[in-house]
Amino acid sequence: MINLDRTLSKFVPGAKSTLDKRGSSNVPIAGMSDKRMITLTFAVTLDGQFLPIHIIYGGKTKRCLPRGVRFPSTFSVSYNVKHYSNEKEVLKHLDDVIIPYIIAERERLGRPDQVA
To answer: What's phi and psi for 100, nearest 5 deg?
Structure first.
């Protein structure tokens, strides 16, 4: 049994520092009011194993994906216009993460394929 859950998360800017006048008490970081969102899909197995995350960015092309970020190779990263999880995204997550996990577990346990 695998439990899936989706959540929206604010896109977090990667700035680590900012500049302002010497002696300023409040220094706003540019981009902190960024309202862009991403959708994250988390999956956990009945025995508590956390599976790789599916991340959906909002955009029409690969240019919407963050530059210079190296996600773990097991993560499933995609994009669509509204960053929502739809049928296409669920199928991608199944193909990229869930089904490979199930196949690997069946092999590890020596279980034959099951046909519905």
So the answer is: -60, -35
Residue 47 in tokens: 């025995």
Residue 13 has pLDDT above 90, yes or no: no
DSSP-assigned letters across all residues of 43-87:
EEETT-PBPPPEEEEESSSGGGSPTT----TT-EEEEETT----H
pTM, two decimals, is 0.71
For residue 102, what are its two tokens? Answer: 């199930």
d(CA 81, CA 99): 26
* H or E stretch at 95: none
Q: What does R_g of the chain's alpha carbons equal in angstroms?
A: 19
Q: How far is CA 47 from CA 5, 29, 74, 97, 102, in A?
A: 16, 42, 20, 17, 13
- pLDDT (average), residues 38-48: 93
* Summary mean pLDDT of the chain: 82
